[in-house]
């Protein structure tokens, strides 16, 4: 996987990227072209140019990872506890209307458990950084009534949906809108 995928927030991914930049630096030392390095590592030419510029200005040290983009507000122990609580499900934390975790619910849970404030976007980044992803339920609800759904599609939806004319002569002229 390359830079465009998964964001590279995990420490393992950061380490992998740093190793990639170090390998590129060795190629720079051998005098390989930017295009050859970009093709070899499957990154853009612009990215390799940036690496080469950093390498020329600061050597191998300039290509080392500077750590995460933002400092995580939860400690490793707090994250482990949050993961444990998330696995218990929303119902265990008072969200009884459905059994899905939303970002707002996770944000509220973090606030309740650790008295730490996150934005909804911050919660998304936190979850993504730790390998969690957006999920769609694999199963349909037990209460699902296929017959009622078909009745609704055939009888109710046509009444709700506005009728659209399938064809009508029109004109692009502002002074003469149509001939009907």
Could you please describe the fold and organization of this structure?
The protein has 180 residues and is mainly α. 53% of the residues lie in helices and 0% in strands. The chain has helices spanning 11-30, 34-41, 45-62, 76-88, 103-114, 120-129, 146-160.
In short:
With 180 residues, the chain is mainly α. The chain contains 7 helices and no strands. 53% of the residues lie in helices and 0% in strands.
Mean pLDDT: 83
Number of strands: 0
Radius of gyration: 27 Å
How many helices? The count is 7
Order of helices and strands: HHHHHHH
Please describe the structure with a list of short key phrases separated by commas or semicolons.
flat, 180 residues, 0% strand, 53% helix, disordered N terminus, mainly alpha
Ordered list of secondary-structure elements with their pairings:
Blueprint: H1 11-30, H2 34-41, H3 45-62, H4 76-88, H5 103-114, H6 120-129, H7 146-160
Helix pairs in contact: 1-3, 2-3, 5-6
């Amino acid at each position: 996987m390359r830079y465009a995928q998964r964001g590279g927030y995990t420490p393992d991914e950061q380490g992998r990227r740093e190793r990639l930049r170090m390998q590129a630096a060795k190629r720079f030392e051998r005098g390989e072209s930017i295009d050859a390095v970009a093709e070899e590592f499957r990154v853009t030419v612009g990215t390799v140019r940036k690496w080469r510029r950093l390498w020329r200005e600061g050597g191998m040290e300039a290509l080392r990872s500077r750590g995460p983009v933002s400092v995580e507000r939860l400690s490793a122990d707090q994250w482990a506890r949050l993961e444990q609580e998330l696995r218990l499900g929303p119902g265990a934390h008072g969200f009884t209307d459905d059994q899905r975790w939303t970002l707002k619910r996770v944000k509220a849970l973090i606030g309740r458990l650790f008295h730490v404030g996150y934005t909804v976007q911050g919660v998304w980044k936190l979850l993504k950084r730790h390998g969690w992803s957006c999920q769609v339920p694999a199963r349909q609800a037990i209460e699902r009534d296929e017959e009622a759904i078909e009745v609704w599609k055939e009888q109710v939806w046509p009444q709700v949906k506005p009728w659209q004319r399938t064809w009508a002569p029109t004109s692009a002229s502002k002074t003469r809108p149509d001939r009907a």
